[in-house]
Amino acid sequence: MKNSLTVLFLLWSSFLYSQLEFCQGSKGDPIFHETFGTGNLSGPALPASVTNYRYVTGDPNDGEYTISGRVGQNNTTWHSYFPSTTTSKGRALIVNAGFSSGLFYTTRIEGLCENASYEFSAYLMNVYDRTSNACNNGGIPINVRFEIWDETDTTLLKEGSTGDIQSTISPVWERYALTFQSREGQGAVILKMFNNGDGGCGNDLAIDDIIFSSCGDLTEIIAEGDTGNPIVICESTPRRSFTLTATPDFSVYNNHVYQWQESDDGILWIDIPNETREAFITPEISSTTYYRVRVAEASINLENNLCSSVSEVFKFLYVKTPLAPVSAGDILVCTNEEIPPLMVNVEDDNHRVNWYDAAVGGNLLAENTPRIQAYTPGIYYAEAINNDGCEAGPRTGVSLNFIEVPAIEDEILSLCENSFLTLKAGVSGASYLWSTGETSEDIIINSTGDFSVTISTEGCRVQKNIKVIPVVPAVINRIISEEDRVIIETTVSGEFEYSLNGMDFQESNIFRNIRGGIYTAYVRDLSGCETNSLRFPHIVIQRHFSPNNDGYNDLFELKGVEYFNSSFIRIYNRYGSLIKSGNGVGFTWDGTFNGKPLPADDYWYEIFIEDLKLLKGNISLVRQPGF
Protein backbone atom coordinates (compact mmCIF):
# COMPACT_ATOMS: atom_id res chain seq x y z
CA MET A 1 0.00 0.00 0.00
CA LYS A 2 2.91 2.33 0.83
CA ASN A 3 4.50 1.78 -2.58
CA SER A 4 1.14 2.47 -4.31
CA LEU A 5 0.76 5.76 -2.44
CA THR A 6 4.30 6.71 -3.39
CA VAL A 7 3.61 6.09 -7.08
CA LEU A 8 0.37 8.09 -6.95
CA PHE A 9 2.12 10.97 -5.21
CA LEU A 10 4.94 11.03 -7.72
CA LEU A 11 2.49 10.95 -10.65
CA TRP A 12 0.54 13.83 -9.12
CA SER A 13 3.69 15.83 -8.49
CA SER A 14 4.91 15.25 -12.04
CA PHE A 15 1.55 16.29 -13.47
CA LEU A 16 1.53 19.47 -11.36
CA TYR A 17 5.04 20.40 -12.45
CA SER A 18 4.23 19.77 -16.10
CA GLN A 19 1.47 22.36 -15.96
CA LEU A 20 3.63 25.25 -14.67
CA GLU A 21 4.61 26.82 -17.98
CA PHE A 22 1.76 26.06 -20.33
CA CYS A 23 0.36 28.93 -22.34
CA GLN A 24 -2.30 30.51 -20.14
CA GLY A 25 -3.96 32.29 -23.04
CA SER A 26 -4.95 31.30 -26.57
CA LYS A 27 -2.69 29.19 -28.77
CA GLY A 28 -2.43 29.47 -32.52
CA ASP A 29 -1.89 26.69 -35.04
CA PRO A 30 1.42 24.78 -34.65
CA ILE A 31 4.40 26.45 -36.35
CA PHE A 32 6.50 23.34 -35.83
CA HIS A 33 5.30 19.81 -35.08
CA GLU A 34 7.70 16.87 -34.88
CA THR A 35 5.62 13.66 -34.88
CA PHE A 36 8.50 11.25 -35.67
CA GLY A 37 6.20 9.58 -38.20
CA THR A 38 3.27 7.18 -38.13
CA GLY A 39 2.90 3.40 -37.98
CA ASN A 40 4.84 0.77 -36.07
CA LEU A 41 7.96 0.52 -38.23
CA SER A 42 11.32 1.90 -37.10
CA GLY A 43 13.19 4.94 -38.40
CA PRO A 44 14.33 6.91 -40.11
CA ALA A 45 17.38 7.99 -38.14
CA LEU A 46 17.70 11.64 -37.11
CA PRO A 47 20.29 13.88 -38.79
CA ALA A 48 23.67 13.86 -37.09
CA SER A 49 23.17 17.53 -36.20
CA VAL A 50 20.16 16.64 -34.03
CA THR A 51 21.67 14.02 -31.69
CA ASN A 52 25.01 12.51 -30.78
CA TYR A 53 23.36 9.22 -29.71
CA ARG A 54 23.73 6.14 -31.89
CA TYR A 55 20.68 4.97 -33.89
CA VAL A 56 19.50 1.35 -33.65
CA THR A 57 16.39 -0.39 -35.02
CA GLY A 58 15.47 -2.36 -31.87
CA ASP A 59 15.24 -1.38 -28.23
CA PRO A 60 18.28 0.87 -27.58
CA ASN A 61 20.96 0.35 -24.93
CA ASP A 62 22.70 3.12 -22.96
CA GLY A 63 23.67 5.98 -25.28
CA GLU A 64 21.45 4.73 -28.10
CA TYR A 65 18.09 5.72 -29.53
CA THR A 66 15.49 4.52 -31.99
CA ILE A 67 12.37 5.90 -33.64
CA SER A 68 9.48 3.44 -33.58
CA GLY A 69 5.80 2.93 -32.91
CA ARG A 70 6.68 -0.07 -30.74
CA VAL A 71 8.42 -0.22 -27.39
CA GLY A 72 9.71 -3.13 -25.32
CA GLN A 73 10.38 -5.27 -28.39
CA ASN A 74 13.38 -7.04 -26.81
CA ASN A 75 13.65 -5.42 -23.42
CA THR A 76 11.13 -7.14 -21.16
CA THR A 77 11.74 -4.62 -18.38
CA TRP A 78 10.08 -1.88 -20.45
CA HIS A 79 6.42 -1.22 -21.07
CA SER A 80 5.16 -3.15 -24.08
CA TYR A 81 3.09 -0.46 -25.79
CA PHE A 82 2.44 3.27 -26.15
CA PRO A 83 -0.97 4.52 -24.94
CA SER A 84 -2.92 6.48 -27.57
CA THR A 85 -2.98 9.73 -25.62
CA THR A 86 -0.53 11.84 -27.60
CA THR A 87 -1.50 14.23 -30.36
CA SER A 88 -0.23 12.20 -33.34
CA LYS A 89 -0.59 8.69 -31.79
CA GLY A 90 2.28 7.41 -33.96
CA ARG A 91 5.99 6.77 -33.65
CA ALA A 92 8.13 8.24 -30.87
CA LEU A 93 11.78 9.00 -30.15
CA ILE A 94 12.95 6.29 -27.70
CA VAL A 95 16.16 7.13 -25.80
CA ASN A 96 18.26 5.00 -23.47
CA ALA A 97 20.11 7.78 -21.66
CA GLY A 98 23.86 7.55 -21.36
CA PHE A 99 25.70 7.13 -18.09
CA SER A 100 26.65 10.80 -18.20
CA SER A 101 24.12 13.61 -18.21
CA GLY A 102 24.21 15.97 -21.15
CA LEU A 103 22.73 17.14 -24.43
CA PHE A 104 20.96 14.45 -26.45
CA TYR A 105 18.69 16.41 -28.83
CA THR A 106 18.92 19.79 -30.60
CA THR A 107 16.97 21.26 -33.52
CA ARG A 108 16.36 24.65 -35.12
CA ILE A 109 12.79 26.01 -35.34
CA GLU A 110 12.17 28.42 -38.24
CA GLY A 111 9.20 30.59 -39.16
CA LEU A 112 8.74 32.42 -35.87
CA CYS A 113 7.60 35.99 -35.68
CA GLU A 114 9.78 38.57 -34.03
CA ASN A 115 8.97 39.81 -30.57
CA ALA A 116 6.12 37.30 -30.15
CA SER A 117 5.08 34.88 -27.38
CA TYR A 118 5.24 31.10 -27.97
CA GLU A 119 4.64 27.82 -26.25
CA PHE A 120 6.94 24.84 -26.64
CA SER A 121 5.52 21.47 -25.57
CA ALA A 122 6.39 17.77 -25.78
CA TYR A 123 5.11 14.44 -24.48
CA LEU A 124 7.48 12.41 -22.30
CA MET A 125 7.19 8.89 -20.90
CA ASN A 126 9.32 6.80 -18.56
CA VAL A 127 9.39 3.51 -20.47
CA TYR A 128 10.70 1.39 -17.57
CA ASP A 129 8.00 -0.99 -16.28
CA ARG A 130 8.00 -0.74 -12.51
CA THR A 131 6.32 -4.15 -12.15
CA SER A 132 9.33 -5.92 -13.74
CA ASN A 133 11.35 -5.30 -10.52
CA ALA A 134 14.53 -5.36 -12.59
CA CYS A 135 15.77 -2.14 -10.95
CA ASN A 136 15.87 -1.25 -7.29
CA ASN A 137 13.31 1.26 -6.03
CA GLY A 138 11.61 1.54 -9.40
CA GLY A 139 14.78 2.42 -11.30
CA ILE A 140 16.48 5.74 -11.95
CA PRO A 141 13.84 8.35 -12.88
CA ILE A 142 14.10 10.28 -16.10
CA ASN A 143 14.76 14.02 -15.85
CA VAL A 144 14.92 16.24 -18.93
CA ARG A 145 15.92 19.90 -19.18
CA PHE A 146 14.55 22.01 -22.05
CA GLU A 147 16.45 25.08 -23.29
CA ILE A 148 15.24 27.63 -25.86
CA TRP A 149 18.06 29.70 -27.44
CA ASP A 150 17.86 32.56 -29.91
CA GLU A 151 18.69 31.91 -33.54
CA THR A 152 22.35 32.90 -32.99
CA ASP A 153 22.66 30.29 -30.21
CA THR A 154 24.15 32.99 -27.99
CA THR A 155 21.18 34.05 -25.84
CA LEU A 156 19.18 31.65 -23.66
CA LEU A 157 15.55 32.71 -23.93
CA LYS A 158 14.00 30.18 -21.51
CA GLU A 159 14.83 26.92 -19.77
CA GLY A 160 13.01 24.46 -17.54
CA SER A 161 13.30 20.91 -16.26
CA THR A 162 10.71 18.22 -15.90
CA GLY A 163 11.99 17.13 -12.54
CA ASP A 164 12.16 13.45 -11.76
CA ILE A 165 9.62 11.41 -13.71
CA GLN A 166 9.29 8.12 -11.87
CA SER A 167 8.54 4.77 -13.46
CA THR A 168 4.94 3.55 -13.48
CA ILE A 169 3.10 0.25 -13.37
CA SER A 170 1.44 1.04 -16.72
CA PRO A 171 2.59 3.30 -19.56
CA VAL A 172 1.71 6.99 -19.13
CA TRP A 173 2.41 9.96 -21.41
CA GLU A 174 2.91 13.34 -19.70
CA ARG A 175 2.94 16.67 -21.54
CA TYR A 176 5.44 19.38 -20.57
CA ALA A 177 5.70 22.95 -21.81
CA LEU A 178 7.63 26.23 -21.72
CA THR A 179 6.55 29.68 -22.84
CA PHE A 180 9.05 32.18 -24.21
CA GLN A 181 9.35 35.46 -26.13
CA SER A 182 11.11 35.64 -29.50
CA ARG A 183 13.65 38.39 -30.01
CA GLU A 184 13.12 41.45 -32.13
CA GLY A 185 14.42 40.99 -35.66
CA GLN A 186 14.73 37.21 -35.30
CA GLY A 187 12.51 34.50 -36.84
CA ALA A 188 14.02 31.31 -35.42
CA VAL A 189 15.02 29.63 -32.15
CA ILE A 190 17.05 26.56 -31.18
CA LEU A 191 15.59 23.81 -28.97
CA LYS A 192 17.96 21.77 -26.83
CA MET A 193 17.08 18.81 -24.60
CA PHE A 194 19.43 17.53 -21.91
CA ASN A 195 19.47 14.37 -19.84
CA ASN A 196 19.68 15.41 -16.20
CA GLY A 197 19.44 11.85 -14.89
CA ASP A 198 22.18 9.58 -13.63
CA GLY A 199 23.41 6.52 -15.46
CA GLY A 200 22.45 3.03 -14.36
CA CYS A 201 19.31 0.90 -14.19
CA GLY A 202 16.45 3.01 -15.53
CA ASN A 203 16.57 6.52 -17.00
CA ASP A 204 14.98 5.32 -20.27
CA LEU A 205 12.50 7.62 -21.98
CA ALA A 206 10.30 8.26 -24.99
CA ILE A 207 9.46 11.65 -26.52
CA ASP A 208 6.68 12.52 -28.98
CA ASP A 209 4.86 15.51 -30.51
CA ILE A 210 7.37 18.34 -30.11
CA ILE A 211 5.21 21.38 -30.89
CA PHE A 212 5.82 25.15 -31.13
CA SER A 213 2.71 27.36 -31.22
CA SER A 214 2.05 31.05 -30.82
CA CYS A 215 0.69 32.03 -27.41
CA GLY A 216 -1.56 34.99 -26.93
CA ASP A 217 -4.32 36.34 -24.76
CA LEU A 218 -7.66 34.64 -24.36
CA THR A 219 -9.96 37.10 -26.04
CA GLU A 220 -13.70 37.14 -25.53
CA ILE A 221 -16.14 38.90 -27.86
CA ILE A 222 -18.99 40.66 -26.12
CA ALA A 223 -22.05 42.00 -27.93
CA GLU A 224 -23.75 45.19 -26.86
CA GLY A 225 -25.95 44.55 -23.88
CA ASP A 226 -23.97 41.35 -23.20
CA THR A 227 -26.75 39.31 -24.80
CA GLY A 228 -24.70 36.13 -24.90
CA ASN A 229 -23.20 34.03 -27.67
CA PRO A 230 -24.67 33.01 -30.06
CA ILE A 231 -27.32 35.58 -30.88
CA VAL A 232 -30.40 34.18 -32.61
CA ILE A 233 -31.94 36.37 -35.31
CA CYS A 234 -35.36 35.37 -36.55
CA GLU A 235 -36.32 35.97 -40.17
CA SER A 236 -39.57 37.53 -39.01
CA THR A 237 -37.81 40.27 -37.00
CA PRO A 238 -36.50 43.53 -38.57
CA ARG A 239 -32.90 43.39 -39.70
CA ARG A 240 -30.30 45.26 -37.60
CA SER A 241 -26.58 45.56 -36.91
CA PHE A 242 -24.69 44.85 -33.67
CA THR A 243 -21.64 46.25 -31.92
CA LEU A 244 -19.06 43.63 -30.94
CA THR A 245 -16.18 44.37 -28.57
CA ALA A 246 -12.95 42.37 -28.23
CA THR A 247 -12.01 41.83 -24.58
CA PRO A 248 -8.55 40.23 -24.08
CA ASP A 249 -7.59 38.85 -20.65
CA PHE A 250 -4.02 40.32 -20.61
CA SER A 251 -2.63 36.91 -19.67
CA VAL A 252 0.20 37.27 -22.23
CA TYR A 253 0.07 40.58 -24.11
CA ASN A 254 0.60 43.99 -22.60
CA ASN A 255 -0.42 45.82 -25.77
CA HIS A 256 -3.06 44.76 -28.30
CA VAL A 257 -3.71 45.30 -31.98
CA TYR A 258 -6.75 43.78 -33.72
CA GLN A 259 -7.93 42.45 -37.06
CA TRP A 260 -11.62 41.46 -37.28
CA GLN A 261 -12.57 38.50 -39.48
CA GLU A 262 -15.83 37.02 -40.72
CA SER A 263 -16.97 33.65 -42.05
CA ASP A 264 -20.17 32.11 -43.35
CA ASP A 265 -19.28 28.59 -42.20
CA GLY A 266 -16.94 29.03 -39.22
CA ILE A 267 -14.09 27.40 -41.18
CA LEU A 268 -12.89 29.78 -43.90
CA TRP A 269 -12.10 33.23 -42.45
CA ILE A 270 -11.68 36.52 -44.33
CA ASP A 271 -10.18 39.74 -42.96
CA ILE A 272 -12.68 42.62 -42.82
CA PRO A 273 -11.00 45.65 -44.41
CA ASN A 274 -10.19 48.55 -42.05
CA GLU A 275 -11.74 46.83 -39.01
CA THR A 276 -8.72 46.98 -36.69
CA ARG A 277 -10.20 48.59 -33.61
CA GLU A 278 -11.31 47.04 -30.37
CA ALA A 279 -15.00 47.51 -31.28
CA PHE A 280 -16.66 46.47 -34.52
CA ILE A 281 -20.13 47.28 -35.87
CA THR A 282 -21.55 44.48 -37.98
CA PRO A 283 -23.64 45.07 -41.09
CA GLU A 284 -27.32 44.14 -40.90
CA ILE A 285 -27.49 40.41 -40.31
CA SER A 286 -29.48 38.52 -42.96
CA SER A 287 -27.79 35.11 -42.81
CA THR A 288 -25.87 33.01 -40.33
CA THR A 289 -22.51 34.75 -39.87
CA TYR A 290 -19.45 34.08 -37.70
CA TYR A 291 -17.04 36.73 -36.39
CA ARG A 292 -13.69 36.54 -34.64
CA VAL A 293 -10.74 38.85 -34.07
CA ARG A 294 -7.00 38.25 -34.42
CA VAL A 295 -4.98 39.77 -31.60
CA ALA A 296 -1.25 40.54 -31.44
CA GLU A 297 1.11 42.88 -29.62
CA ALA A 298 2.53 44.35 -32.83
CA SER A 299 0.75 45.21 -36.07
CA ILE A 300 3.36 43.37 -38.12
CA ASN A 301 2.38 40.11 -36.45
CA LEU A 302 -1.24 40.44 -37.58
CA GLU A 303 -0.05 39.78 -41.12
CA ASN A 304 0.90 36.20 -40.19
CA ASN A 305 -1.68 33.84 -38.72
CA LEU A 306 1.12 32.03 -36.90
CA CYS A 307 2.18 35.18 -35.08
CA SER A 308 -1.09 36.14 -33.45
CA SER A 309 -3.82 34.64 -31.31
CA VAL A 310 -7.46 34.21 -32.21
CA SER A 311 -10.46 35.10 -30.10
CA GLU A 312 -13.40 32.90 -29.46
CA VAL A 313 -15.89 32.72 -32.32
CA PHE A 314 -19.02 34.84 -32.06
CA LYS A 315 -21.99 33.48 -33.96
CA PHE A 316 -25.11 35.15 -35.31
CA LEU A 317 -27.58 32.36 -36.01
CA TYR A 318 -30.05 33.49 -38.64
CA VAL A 319 -33.18 31.39 -38.37
CA LYS A 320 -35.58 31.28 -41.28
CA THR A 321 -39.28 30.86 -40.68
CA PRO A 322 -39.99 27.17 -41.27
CA LEU A 323 -41.88 26.19 -44.37
CA ALA A 324 -45.28 24.61 -43.92
CA PRO A 325 -45.00 20.88 -43.21
CA VAL A 326 -45.70 18.59 -46.15
CA SER A 327 -48.61 16.25 -45.59
CA ALA A 328 -47.91 12.54 -45.97
CA GLY A 329 -51.49 12.20 -47.18
CA ASP A 330 -55.05 12.43 -45.93
CA ILE A 331 -56.38 9.30 -44.27
CA LEU A 332 -59.58 7.55 -45.38
CA VAL A 333 -60.03 4.40 -43.34
CA CYS A 334 -62.71 1.77 -42.87
CA THR A 335 -64.40 1.78 -39.49
CA ASN A 336 -63.39 -1.83 -38.86
CA GLU A 337 -59.68 -1.22 -39.58
CA GLU A 338 -56.84 0.07 -37.41
CA ILE A 339 -56.49 3.82 -37.77
CA PRO A 340 -53.01 4.81 -39.04
CA PRO A 341 -51.45 8.01 -37.65
CA LEU A 342 -51.61 11.30 -39.53
CA MET A 343 -48.10 12.32 -40.62
CA VAL A 344 -46.19 15.27 -42.07
CA ASN A 345 -42.61 15.84 -43.20
CA VAL A 346 -40.51 18.94 -42.48
CA GLU A 347 -37.63 20.41 -44.46
CA ASP A 348 -35.22 20.37 -41.51
CA ASP A 349 -34.77 17.50 -39.09
CA ASN A 350 -34.15 20.07 -36.36
CA HIS A 351 -37.65 21.46 -36.74
CA ARG A 352 -40.27 20.28 -34.29
CA VAL A 353 -43.93 19.73 -35.15
CA ASN A 354 -46.95 20.69 -33.06
CA TRP A 355 -50.55 19.75 -33.89
CA TYR A 356 -53.66 21.92 -33.46
CA ASP A 357 -57.38 21.61 -34.06
CA ALA A 358 -57.60 24.85 -36.05
CA ALA A 359 -55.73 26.54 -38.91
CA VAL A 360 -55.05 29.55 -36.67
CA GLY A 361 -55.02 29.53 -32.88
CA GLY A 362 -56.99 26.60 -31.56
CA ASN A 363 -56.01 23.98 -29.02
CA LEU A 364 -52.68 22.20 -28.89
CA LEU A 365 -53.30 18.49 -29.50
CA ALA A 366 -49.76 17.08 -29.61
CA GLU A 367 -46.26 18.52 -29.59
CA ASN A 368 -42.77 17.63 -30.75
CA THR A 369 -43.94 14.88 -33.11
CA PRO A 370 -44.42 14.64 -36.89
CA ARG A 371 -47.32 12.20 -36.37
CA ILE A 372 -50.52 12.20 -34.38
CA GLN A 373 -52.90 9.37 -33.57
CA ALA A 374 -56.42 10.66 -34.17
CA TYR A 375 -59.66 8.82 -33.52
CA THR A 376 -62.38 11.24 -34.60
CA PRO A 377 -62.95 12.51 -38.16
CA GLY A 378 -61.84 16.02 -39.01
CA ILE A 379 -58.88 18.15 -40.09
CA TYR A 380 -55.77 18.24 -37.93
CA TYR A 381 -53.24 21.05 -38.42
CA ALA A 382 -49.45 20.58 -38.20
CA GLU A 383 -47.12 23.49 -37.51
CA ALA A 384 -43.31 23.43 -37.85
CA ILE A 385 -41.25 25.32 -35.29
CA ASN A 386 -37.50 25.59 -34.81
CA ASN A 387 -35.57 25.16 -31.60
CA ASP A 388 -34.54 28.78 -31.34
CA GLY A 389 -37.76 30.38 -30.21
CA CYS A 390 -38.58 32.00 -33.55
CA GLU A 391 -42.00 32.30 -35.12
CA ALA A 392 -43.61 29.13 -36.39
CA GLY A 393 -44.38 28.59 -40.06
CA PRO A 394 -47.82 28.22 -41.65
CA ARG A 395 -49.90 25.21 -40.70
CA THR A 396 -50.77 22.26 -42.90
CA GLY A 397 -54.11 20.51 -42.60
CA VAL A 398 -54.32 16.71 -42.71
CA SER A 399 -57.76 15.11 -42.70
CA LEU A 400 -59.08 11.90 -41.20
CA ASN A 401 -62.33 10.42 -42.49
CA PHE A 402 -64.07 7.09 -42.13
CA ILE A 403 -65.96 4.77 -44.45
CA GLU A 404 -68.77 3.20 -42.49
CA VAL A 405 -68.63 -0.58 -42.66
CA PRO A 406 -72.03 -2.35 -42.42
CA ALA A 407 -72.79 -3.65 -38.97
CA ILE A 408 -73.20 -7.41 -39.15
CA GLU A 409 -73.58 -10.21 -36.66
CA ASP A 410 -72.48 -13.79 -36.99
CA GLU A 411 -75.25 -16.38 -37.04
CA ILE A 412 -75.93 -19.93 -35.89
CA LEU A 413 -78.60 -21.58 -38.05
CA SER A 414 -80.23 -24.99 -37.99
CA LEU A 415 -80.67 -27.24 -41.01
CA CYS A 416 -83.48 -29.75 -41.21
CA GLU A 417 -82.54 -33.24 -42.29
CA ASN A 418 -82.74 -33.75 -46.07
CA SER A 419 -83.62 -30.12 -46.67
CA PHE A 420 -82.10 -26.87 -47.97
CA LEU A 421 -81.27 -23.58 -46.22
CA THR A 422 -80.78 -20.08 -47.58
CA LEU A 423 -77.79 -18.19 -46.15
CA LYS A 424 -78.08 -14.40 -46.38
CA ALA A 425 -75.25 -11.87 -46.37
CA GLY A 426 -77.61 -9.38 -44.75
CA VAL A 427 -76.24 -6.36 -46.65
CA SER A 428 -77.60 -5.16 -49.98
CA GLY A 429 -75.80 -3.33 -52.77
CA ALA A 430 -72.33 -4.71 -52.03
CA SER A 431 -69.92 -7.26 -53.49
CA TYR A 432 -69.86 -10.73 -51.99
CA LEU A 433 -67.50 -13.66 -51.85
CA TRP A 434 -68.68 -16.74 -50.03
CA SER A 435 -66.41 -19.42 -48.66
CA THR A 436 -68.07 -21.68 -51.22
CA GLY A 437 -66.78 -19.43 -54.02
CA GLU A 438 -70.22 -18.03 -54.85
CA THR A 439 -70.64 -14.27 -55.32
CA SER A 440 -74.37 -13.70 -54.84
CA GLU A 441 -75.95 -11.95 -51.89
CA ASP A 442 -77.69 -15.17 -50.79
CA ILE A 443 -76.71 -18.80 -51.30
CA ILE A 444 -78.54 -22.10 -50.79
CA ILE A 445 -76.85 -24.95 -48.94
CA ASN A 446 -77.89 -28.49 -48.01
CA SER A 447 -75.15 -29.42 -45.55
CA THR A 448 -74.07 -28.39 -42.10
CA GLY A 449 -70.73 -26.75 -41.27
CA ASP A 450 -69.04 -23.35 -41.10
CA PHE A 451 -69.67 -20.79 -43.84
CA SER A 452 -68.47 -17.22 -44.30
CA VAL A 453 -69.04 -14.35 -46.68
CA THR A 454 -66.75 -11.38 -47.30
CA ILE A 455 -68.81 -8.25 -47.94
CA SER A 456 -67.04 -5.44 -49.82
CA THR A 457 -68.38 -1.91 -50.08
CA GLU A 458 -66.54 1.32 -50.99
CA GLY A 459 -63.20 -0.42 -50.69
CA CYS A 460 -63.91 -1.79 -47.22
CA ARG A 461 -64.42 -5.40 -46.33
CA VAL A 462 -66.16 -7.16 -43.48
CA GLN A 463 -66.66 -10.87 -42.90
CA LYS A 464 -69.79 -12.58 -41.65
CA ASN A 465 -69.54 -16.09 -40.22
CA ILE A 466 -72.44 -18.53 -40.24
CA LYS A 467 -72.44 -21.86 -38.43
CA VAL A 468 -75.03 -24.35 -39.68
CA ILE A 469 -75.89 -27.14 -37.25
CA PRO A 470 -78.18 -30.15 -37.76
CA VAL A 471 -81.65 -30.06 -36.22
CA VAL A 472 -82.23 -32.64 -33.49
CA PRO A 473 -85.50 -34.45 -34.36
CA ALA A 474 -88.26 -34.27 -31.75
CA VAL A 475 -89.49 -37.76 -30.79
CA ILE A 476 -91.94 -38.37 -27.93
CA ASN A 477 -90.67 -40.97 -25.49
CA ARG A 478 -93.60 -41.09 -23.07
CA ILE A 479 -96.51 -39.12 -21.66
CA ILE A 480 -96.81 -38.74 -17.90
CA SER A 481 -100.37 -38.14 -16.68
CA GLU A 482 -100.38 -37.14 -13.02
CA GLU A 483 -103.54 -35.86 -11.40
CA ASP A 484 -104.37 -32.77 -13.48
CA ARG A 485 -100.88 -32.49 -15.03
CA VAL A 486 -99.54 -33.79 -18.33
CA ILE A 487 -95.77 -34.08 -18.92
CA ILE A 488 -94.40 -34.78 -22.39
CA GLU A 489 -90.95 -36.39 -22.39
CA THR A 490 -88.77 -36.71 -25.52
CA THR A 491 -86.09 -39.25 -26.38
CA VAL A 492 -83.37 -36.56 -26.57
CA SER A 493 -83.02 -33.08 -25.14
CA GLY A 494 -83.23 -30.15 -27.50
CA GLU A 495 -84.94 -26.87 -28.22
CA PHE A 496 -88.53 -27.97 -28.72
CA GLU A 497 -92.06 -26.60 -28.49
CA TYR A 498 -94.98 -28.57 -27.02
CA SER A 499 -98.75 -28.60 -27.59
CA LEU A 500 -101.84 -30.64 -26.66
CA ASN A 501 -103.98 -29.39 -29.54
CA GLY A 502 -101.51 -28.86 -32.41
CA MET A 503 -102.14 -25.12 -32.46
CA ASP A 504 -101.09 -23.61 -29.19
CA PHE A 505 -97.41 -24.41 -28.56
CA GLN A 506 -95.31 -23.61 -25.51
CA GLU A 507 -91.66 -24.00 -24.54
CA SER A 508 -92.45 -25.92 -21.35
CA ASN A 509 -93.25 -29.63 -21.60
CA ILE A 510 -95.53 -29.49 -18.55
CA PHE A 511 -99.25 -28.75 -18.90
CA ARG A 512 -101.31 -28.03 -15.77
CA ASN A 513 -105.02 -28.08 -14.90
CA ILE A 514 -105.81 -30.48 -17.70
CA ARG A 515 -109.18 -32.16 -17.54
CA GLY A 516 -109.45 -35.85 -18.29
CA GLY A 517 -109.96 -37.00 -21.84
CA ILE A 518 -108.21 -38.26 -24.93
CA TYR A 519 -105.45 -35.92 -26.14
CA THR A 520 -102.79 -35.84 -28.79
CA ALA A 521 -99.35 -34.57 -27.68
CA TYR A 522 -97.32 -32.61 -30.25
CA VAL A 523 -93.59 -31.83 -30.17
CA ARG A 524 -91.72 -29.88 -32.84
CA ASP A 525 -88.22 -28.38 -33.17
CA LEU A 526 -87.89 -24.60 -33.23
CA SER A 527 -86.82 -24.69 -36.87
CA GLY A 528 -90.14 -26.26 -37.77
CA CYS A 529 -88.49 -29.19 -39.48
CA GLU A 530 -90.64 -31.96 -38.05
CA THR A 531 -93.60 -32.41 -35.69
CA ASN A 532 -94.00 -35.64 -33.71
CA SER A 533 -97.38 -36.58 -32.13
CA LEU A 534 -98.79 -39.23 -29.81
CA ARG A 535 -102.42 -39.86 -28.81
CA PHE A 536 -102.89 -40.62 -25.12
CA PRO A 537 -105.61 -40.81 -22.48
CA HIS A 538 -105.56 -38.43 -19.60
CA ILE A 539 -107.47 -39.50 -16.52
CA VAL A 540 -107.34 -37.39 -13.40
CA ILE A 541 -106.32 -39.93 -10.78
CA GLN A 542 -105.89 -38.99 -7.14
CA ARG A 543 -102.55 -39.72 -5.55
CA HIS A 544 -104.10 -40.23 -2.12
CA PHE A 545 -107.44 -40.12 -0.28
CA SER A 546 -108.50 -40.11 3.40
CA PRO A 547 -111.95 -41.47 4.22
CA ASN A 548 -112.64 -39.37 7.36
CA ASN A 549 -116.05 -38.01 6.31
CA ASP A 550 -114.81 -34.40 6.06
CA GLY A 551 -116.20 -34.11 2.56
CA TYR A 552 -112.74 -33.76 0.98
CA ASN A 553 -111.01 -36.71 -0.71
CA ASP A 554 -113.13 -39.20 1.23
CA LEU A 555 -113.32 -41.51 -1.83
CA PHE A 556 -111.00 -42.72 -4.54
CA GLU A 557 -112.66 -42.01 -7.87
CA LEU A 558 -111.74 -41.48 -11.53
CA LYS A 559 -112.38 -38.28 -13.46
CA GLY A 560 -112.42 -38.22 -17.23
CA VAL A 561 -113.19 -41.84 -17.98
CA GLU A 562 -116.56 -40.77 -19.24
CA TYR A 563 -114.82 -39.62 -22.46
CA PHE A 564 -113.95 -43.22 -23.34
CA ASN A 565 -116.26 -45.83 -24.85
CA SER A 566 -115.42 -48.34 -22.17
CA SER A 567 -113.14 -48.52 -19.14
CA PHE A 568 -112.50 -50.95 -16.32
CA ILE A 569 -110.49 -50.63 -13.08
CA ARG A 570 -108.94 -53.02 -10.59
CA ILE A 571 -107.39 -52.21 -7.18
CA TYR A 572 -104.84 -54.47 -5.43
CA ASN A 573 -103.06 -54.40 -2.12
CA ARG A 574 -99.29 -54.65 -1.93
CA TYR A 575 -99.53 -58.43 -1.93
CA GLY A 576 -101.42 -58.54 -5.23
CA SER A 577 -104.79 -59.41 -3.74
CA LEU A 578 -107.74 -57.91 -5.60
CA ILE A 579 -109.54 -55.46 -3.36
CA LYS A 580 -112.13 -54.02 -5.74
CA SER A 581 -112.93 -53.83 -9.48
CA GLY A 582 -115.56 -52.34 -11.73
CA ASN A 583 -116.40 -50.12 -14.70
CA GLY A 584 -114.48 -46.88 -14.73
CA VAL A 585 -117.47 -44.58 -15.11
CA GLY A 586 -118.88 -43.94 -11.65
CA PHE A 587 -116.29 -46.13 -9.91
CA THR A 588 -115.53 -45.20 -6.28
CA TRP A 589 -113.70 -46.83 -3.39
CA ASP A 590 -114.05 -45.88 0.25
CA GLY A 591 -111.00 -47.78 1.49
CA THR A 592 -112.85 -50.89 2.69
CA PHE A 593 -112.80 -54.55 1.78
CA ASN A 594 -115.95 -56.58 2.36
CA GLY A 595 -117.26 -53.66 4.40
CA LYS A 596 -114.24 -53.47 6.67
CA PRO A 597 -111.77 -50.55 6.65
CA LEU A 598 -108.36 -51.39 5.26
CA PRO A 599 -105.23 -50.08 6.92
CA ALA A 600 -103.41 -47.00 5.72
CA ASP A 601 -101.05 -48.15 2.99
CA ASP A 602 -100.20 -47.89 -0.70
CA TYR A 603 -102.52 -49.69 -3.10
CA TRP A 604 -102.11 -50.33 -6.80
CA TYR A 605 -104.52 -49.87 -9.67
CA GLU A 606 -104.91 -51.04 -13.26
CA ILE A 607 -107.14 -49.10 -15.63
CA PHE A 608 -108.19 -50.69 -18.90
CA ILE A 609 -109.39 -48.33 -21.65
CA GLU A 610 -110.44 -49.58 -25.06
CA ASP A 611 -107.81 -49.16 -27.79
CA LEU A 612 -105.31 -47.51 -25.37
CA LYS A 613 -102.42 -48.68 -23.29
CA LEU A 614 -102.99 -50.13 -19.83
CA LEU A 615 -102.61 -47.50 -17.12
CA LYS A 616 -100.88 -48.54 -13.90
CA GLY A 617 -100.10 -46.67 -10.73
CA ASN A 618 -100.45 -46.47 -6.99
CA ILE A 619 -102.56 -44.51 -4.55
CA SER A 620 -102.07 -43.89 -0.86
CA LEU A 621 -104.81 -44.61 1.64
CA VAL A 622 -104.42 -42.22 4.55
CA ARG A 623 -106.13 -42.92 7.88
CA GLN A 624 -106.65 -40.45 10.69
CA PRO A 625 -107.11 -41.68 14.23
CA GLY A 626 -110.66 -42.90 14.83
CA PHE A 627 -111.43 -43.65 11.16
TrEMBL record:
Secretion signal span: 1-18
Protein origin, superkingdom: Bacteria
InterPro entries from the UniProt entry: Ig_7 (IPR044023), T9SS_type_B (IPR026341)
Domain Ig-like: 322-400
Keyword list, A-Z: Signal
NCBIfam families the UniProt entry points to: Bac_Flav_CTERM
Protein name stated in the entry: T9SS type B sorting domain-containing protein
Organism annotation: Antarcticibacterium arcticum
